[in-house]
Amino acid sequence: MIVQACINGARPRDFHPLIPLTIDAMVRDAAASVAAGAAELHIHPRGADGKESLAAVDDTLGAIRRACPGTLIGVSTGAWIEGDREKTREGIRCWRVLPDYASVNLSEDDAPGVIQLLRQKGVGIEVGLASVADAERYTSLEDHERVFRLLIELDDEQDLQRACDIRDGIIEVLERSRVNRPILLHGFDGTVWPFVRSARERRYSTRIGLEDGKHLPDGTIASDNAALVAAAVAIFRGQSN
After folding, report:
1. Residues 71-120: tens digit of each pLDDT
2. Domain boundary assignment for the chain
3. Which of the four CATH numbers 3.20.20.70, 3.80.10.10, 3.20.20.150, 3.30.70.270 does domain 3-236 have?
4. CA 200, CA 172: separation in Å to the nearest integer?
């Protein structure tokens, strides 16, 4: 059970005054999040124009690793980043500073191809499951157990009961197929804190940060990523409800 910090994601500049979009800001927030108790980092590198970019992975990871030695760092391979299958694959092929793992969304058409490419590069795979259909697709893949971790993430569902039903359906598929991989469970905006608590109850890992939401458990806006991490770590340590 660990708390991963997801410090920026695809959020726009106006989402929060301290959303880290430059390398210097990401280094600052990464170090502060680790100091607050995050065991891992999930980063969406940005180019000079502030847009997400697979080409920015090398410089961004190099800088964060210098600031956070020994901390596992993951990145996204979301199809929206480059907006083109071949550009996505070429971006990954060109990586010279490799992340410890990369997230692959099973809802995306080219997910199996991206998974194979990451394996060839020696990058761990964090499989993103957002629906029962994603879970069924994952369990149908050859060598589906050869992944770093499973990520149950319900970004598009804000009705808590519906989100819980989807979560339970995904878990049922994994249990039925006897999948034995670590699980990280997280919510988005209104479901963030219920899912942090659910992860603790189920002894799963979780993640927190401005990628997933900006509010603390009491509903106030967090000052920064470190404040969000500290609140999640307190829940995981049983110091907060």
Report:
1. 999 999 999 999 999 999 999 999 999 999 999 999 999 999 999 999 99
2. 3-236
3. 3.20.20.70
4. 18
